[in-house]
Amino acid sequence: MRDPSAFLRKHGLPITAQRLAVLRAVSAHPHSTADALAEAVRAEIGSISRQAVYNALGTLVEKGLLRRIQPAGSPALYEDRVGDNHHHLICRTCGKTVDVACAVGDRPCLKAADNAGFKIDEAEVIYWGTCPECLPLAPARSEEQSPLKISESDKPTQNPSI
To answer: Could you tell me the CATH number of the domain that includes residue 35?
Structure first.
C-alpha cells in the first residue's frame, strides 16, 4: 500500500494514527491475527489498546479495505488483498497461510449448484494441508487414514432383517 492516508480519504474514513498503523501492519504481515497486528501497531506507534486495534480492523473490514478470514478452529486472520475472490492454503502443522488464485477461469467458485435464491458475490475456499517446510516432519498419511474414505466396515449393511 503506497499511501494509506489517500486510501482512507478515498473511502471516506477519517485519517487516524491508529488506522494508518493498522493498515501498515496488515500490509506488512498479511494473514495475521488481531493480537499479532496489535503487537505490530504497538511497535510502531507505542501504546494502543487491543480494543482500538479491533475497532480499526472492524471498520476497515466493513468498508471493504481489509479482508477477514476465519479458518475453522482458528482465530480470524486479516489481509489487505481484497476484491479478487482469491482463496487460501493453510498448513495444519504450523498454521502458515498463503494466497492461491481460483483454480480455473473467472470466478468459477461463484457458480453454486443451487443458489437458493441468493445473489452470490463472493466465495471463500480454504485448502488445508501441510506446507513444504513441515512436510518432512509430518507423519505419512495413507489413503486408509483419509477422513473422506469410507472403509467397508463403515458402510451400512444391506441386511433387511436388522
So the answer is: 1.10.10.10
